[in-house]
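Example protein
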Amino acid sequence: MRSFDFSPLMRSSIGYDRIEQLFQGLERTPSSDKFPPYNIIKKDLDNYQITMAVSGFSEGDIEITATQNSLQITGKSSQDDKDVEYLHRGIAGRAFNQNFELADTIKVVGASLDNGLLAIDLKREIPDALRPRTIEIGKSSLLEGKAA
C-alpha cells in the first residue's frame, strides 16, 4: 500500500485535512470491477452529471444514497432468471455498488432513468459565508494605545 506525505502541502494550507482521508479511501476502493460503466460530465462551472449505463434495471431496482461527502448507487436486479435458458448472456444484470466522493459544496439535486441510462445531477452550492468578500482596512484596536 502506498503512503502519501502531505506535510509539504500543509505548511501553507489551512483546512485541507480531508485530503489525506480522501486518498486513503481511494486506495481501498477496488479498481477491478468497473460495472456498470459511467461518465462524469461537467456541464458548466457549477453543474455536473454522472451518467451510468444500467440497462435491465428499473427505478425500483436502484437505490441512490447521498451523505455529506459521498454518493452511493446500489443496484439489485429484481428479474427472476431461474426459468430462462440463455444461449448467450451479454447484458449484465448483476448487482452493483458504486461510490463517489463528493466535495463539501457538491449537492445531489436529482436523478432520472431513461432508456437504460441513469442520470444523477449534481450542483456546487457555495454558502454565502464561503463566498469571497472584501475586507475593509481600518485601524487596529491593538495599536491605538501605543505610540510609534
In short: Residues 110 and 121 are 5 Å apart (CA to CA). The first helix runs from residue 7 to 10. The radius of gyration is 23 Å. Helices lie at 7-10, 18-28.
